[in-house]
Amino acid sequence: MRTLTGKSRLAGILGWPVSHSRSPRLQGFWLARHGIDGGYLPLPVRPDRFEGAVRALADLGFAGANVTIPHKEAAFALCDEVSAVARRAGSVNTLVFREGRIHGTSTDGFGCLESLREQAPGWRAEAGPAVILGAGGAVRAVAAALLDAGCPRLTLVNRTAARAEQIACDLGGPVEVATAPPLAEAALLINGTSLGMQGEPPLEIDLAPLPDHAVVQDMVYAPLETRLLAAARARGLRAVDGLGMLLHQARPGFEAWFGVAPQVDAELRDFVLADLAADRGAPQAATPPRSGA
Ligand SMILES: NC(=O)c1ccc[n+]([C@@H]2O[C@H](COP(=O)([O-])OP(=O)(O)OC[C@H]3O[C@@H](n4cnc5c(N)ncnc54)[C@H](OP(=O)(O)O)[C@@H]3O)[C@@H](O)[C@H]2O)c1
């Protein structure tokens, strides 16, 4: 059994609520795998206490923290320094406390692109136009990352058009807003809505107009194989699930806090999938690896 010591490095995730978060298990898996003297805690913090809590963590010697709903914009506002991508996204999901200053970045876009590269080998942002369904916080970060990676044209389609228009306005560049997804020329289609998630209505979309080389990605990871991904595979298109994004977005924080660049691999995927299944009532949660495994 791994226990903390007086020298343990600490990080955690601030959210309200935070009990749904996969991050403690995911980060805990890497801590165990690498035998690191450290801990990663769930930190439920009410919105009106968020800034005080972050400053207290820094004072307590934490190495940093992840930030989730509803605090990502508040985190952006309180950082002393933010990365270029966080500035573009207008939100921060990863805080690093260093030399008395609070550094912030946004890793959702990184996670999304890394999972595309992993699950659709050879995919390149420059390859052609992208269509994203949705205009929430995750889409904002992913849109910024796609443009930064060289995506030539991006179309946002959202139930509430004004949210998509705000993102287009904030990001500038080749971003359009449409009421119907222009699939015929799309090299990439991403579902960034909550449609298709367990307990939500399915996403209804006809993939027939997509070109044969198109890649389809779903940010939803519960269920892992959404109807959208099944339809894409049935059409012979490459399909990228939302779990990859979840796992890859966690890498930069872990490396910054604990000093090791962690890997996303099949063992980690299976561990997190078993954890998701356990939440749905399966008998036993997954066991993290032994130290050094
Ligand atoms: N894989 C990952 O690592 C990862 C990371 C972050 C988020 N996600 C997933 O990405 C999705 C969006 O997350 P978020 O944080 O950006 O949430 P959010 O800010 O709440 O945005 C939700 C989006 O879904 C749309 N939507 C919700 N219900 C809808 C409906 N009935 N019909 C049409 N559109 C609907 C919303 O449209 P309106 O603007 O019209 O309300 C909005 O565009 C979720 O499925 C989340 O689980 C995945």
Number of helices: 11
Total beta-strand segments: 12
Radius of gyration: 19 Å
The separation of the N and C termini measures 14 Å
Write down the overall mean pLDDT: 94
Q: In one word, what is the shape?
A: globular
Quote the beta fraction: 15-25%
> Which sheet architecture does the biggest sheet show?
6 strands, mixed
Order of helices and strands: EHEHEHEHEEHEHEHEEEHEHHH
Main-sheet strand order equals 2-1-3-5-6-4
Question: Which distinct ligands sit in these coordinates?
Answer: NADP nicotinamide-adenine-dinucleotide phosphate
Q: Estimate the helix proportion, in percent.
A: 25-40%
Summarize this, please?
The chain is 37% helix and 18% strand.
Key terms for this structure?
293 residues, globular, 11 helices, 12 strands
Characterization of the model:
The protein has 11 helices and 12 strands. Helix 5 (108-119) packs across helix 6. Helix 8 links the parallel strand 11 and strand 12 (238-240). Helix content is 37%, strand content 18%. 45% of the residues are buried. The strands form 2 sheets. A 6-stranded mixed β-sheet has the order 2-1-3-5-6-4, sandwiched between helices. It has a 6-stranded parallel β-sheet with strand order 9-8-7-10-11-12, with helices on both faces. It is of the alpha/beta class and 293 residues long. The structure holds NADP nicotinamide-adenine-dinucleotide phosphate. Residues 108, 111, 134-139, 158-160, 163, 192-195, 197, 201, 219-221, 242, 245-246, 249 line the site of NADP nicotinamide-adenine-dinucleotide phosphate (NAP). NADP nicotinamide-adenine-dinucleotide phosphate binds at residues 108, 111, 134-139, 158-160, 163, 192-195, 197, 201, 219-221, 242, 245-246, 249.
